[in-house]
Amino acid sequence: VGPDYERPPVAAPEQYRGTLGPPDAASLADLPWWDLFGDPVLKGLIKEALENNYNLQTAVARIEESRALVGVAASQFYPQAAYQAEAARQREFIPPVFGLGLPVPNSAFNSFLGAVNVTWEIDVWGRIRRSTEAARANFLASEEARRGVMLTLVSDVATAYFALLELDRELEIARESAETYTDTLDLFTRRYVGGKDTKLSTSRAEAALDSSAATIAALKREIAQQEDALSVLLGKHPEPIPRGTALIAQTMPEMPPGLPSDLLERRPDILQVEQTMVSANAEIGVAIANFFPTVGLSALYGSEASKISDLFKNGFSVWNIVGNVSGPIFQGGRLLEQYEGQKAFWDETIAQYQATIIQAFREVSDALAADAELMGERVAREKQVAALKEAVELSLLRYQGGRATYLDVLDAEQALYPAEDALAQTQRDQLAAVVTLYKALGGGWKLSDAEWNEPH
After folding, report:
1. Reported confidence tier of residue 152, pLDDT bands at 50, 70, 90
2. pLDDT at position 225, please?
3. Which residues contact 72 (CB under 8 A, 6 or more apart)?
């Protein structure tokens, strides 16, 4: 009894927003994660995380729990056999024989019982089968949840690693700025001692140098904290993280999104919510079956004796076979409310399914938009940095020739280093956009369980 599962209709867009050109079946999600990244150190970190991360181990344990619950639900379909043994001693009061007045001694005796009993609920209405169907769907949902944890873990490790490389680049820029400000302060000091400049120029240069030193200290703290966060993803205590390819040398793969209709079969979170729908649908069948009578058989076979040594001497002396039918008459509305509640939960899972799909399409579109705009942003920032470097050189030449003030030099230097930081952040954002799109598309969906942990 109960409805058979049918996937609710979902209208997928013809192509993702932000896609250039006609849609193509080829997708970034078809790549295994080890082909997505060209940095061997990053590949090693991801593999370590897949082996040791505790969130992933938790997800694996939940799968084993769900698999066991499928067996628990399915076991009710079969006869249940058990044994029982009893040993008792009791005394009975026997009143005097009426009319004779003769006393009768109280009777005391022992009783021993050994038996095997079998019970079997005949699944006439499919209650047990629906319950097993629900448990199996929950098991498959936990499988998809684990795959989602694996994909999220790959994405988180890569994103954290690129953020670490970006902080390394900012630290390098800060140290370069400190060297430049030191040279500038030496230049201003020599001119001040020679009477060609004022104390104000050396004070401004010294302040710029101190600001650069403070930035270096702050970046070192951020790098240590980022390494600690990455260590947690790797499932180990905080420690230094190795580096591979520098930020500016990281490769950018092509990013075709594929067909929107394929997203429903790739994203583990969508598949997980769908299995939750399957389970909720099956539970409606269980709720309906509860209105019908339960049909069963039971049997007992054993022996009873007053002495334990005689228990099995004379063959089995106790047996029964019983057929039974039992069903509800009045439950105060409990069964009806359970049915209505399960239907409401089914509606809830449909809404969750549709919301998850819409969110998935949004995440893909956001990643595509980021990729499209970040390329232009990076080109503009590279030109800005090149122009500011030229401005610093020209300002120093003009200052030394007496045709510019110290303010021109400091302004040019103080504009250059934030621009270099912004360029490094844009380079990081480009790499993060690749990771985000890979995750949004359900990357690695073709991988077997063994391949996730053993890259070729």
Report:
1. very high
2. 96
3. 135
Q: Average pLDDT in the 78-87 region?
A: 92
**Six-digit token string for 176:** 């370069």
Judge contact between 148 and 272, C-beta under 8 A. Answer: yes
pLDDT at 378: 93
pLDDT in tens, 328-376: 998 899 999 999 999 999 999 999 999 999 999 999 999 999 988 999 9
- Token pair recorded at residue 266: 């790739």
pLDDT value, residue 22? 73
Maximum Cα–Cα distance across the chain: 146
CB atoms inside a 10 Å sphere around CB 70: 18
Q: Is the pTM of this model over 0.90?
A: no
3-state secondary structure the chain: CCCCCCCCCCCCCCCCCCCCCCCCCCCHHHCCHHHHCCCHHHHHHHHHHHHHCHHHHHHHHHHHHHHHHHHHHHHCCCCEEEEEEEEEEEEECCCCCCCCCCCCCCEEEEEEEEEEEEEEEECCCCHHHHHHHHHHHHHHHHHHHHHHHHHHHHHHHHHHHHHHHHHHHHHHHHHHHHHHHHHHHHHHHHHHHCCCCCHHHHHHHHHHHHHHHHHHHHHHHHHHHHHHHHHHHCCCCCCCCCCCCCHHHCCCCCCCCCCHHHHHHHCHHHHHHHHHHHHHHHHHHHHHHCCCCEEEEEEEEEEEECCHHHCCCCCCCEEEEEEEEECCCCCCCHHHHHHHHHHHHHHHHHHHHHHHHHHHHHHHHHHHHHHHHHHHHHHHHHHHHHHHHHHHHHHHHHHHCCCCCHHHHHHHHHHHHHHHHHHHHHHHHHHHHHHHHHHHCCCCCCCCHHHHHCCC
Q: Which residues sit opposite 322 in a β-bridge?
A: 298
- Let me know the angle formed at the C-alpha of 126 by 125 and 130, rounded to the nearest 5 degrees: 145
Bridging pattern class, strands 318-326 and 294-305: antiparallel
pLDDT at residue number 309: 76
The CA-atom distances, in angstroms, between 186 and each of 163, 179, 208, 258 are: 35, 11, 13, 58
What pLDDT does residue 125 have? Answer: 92
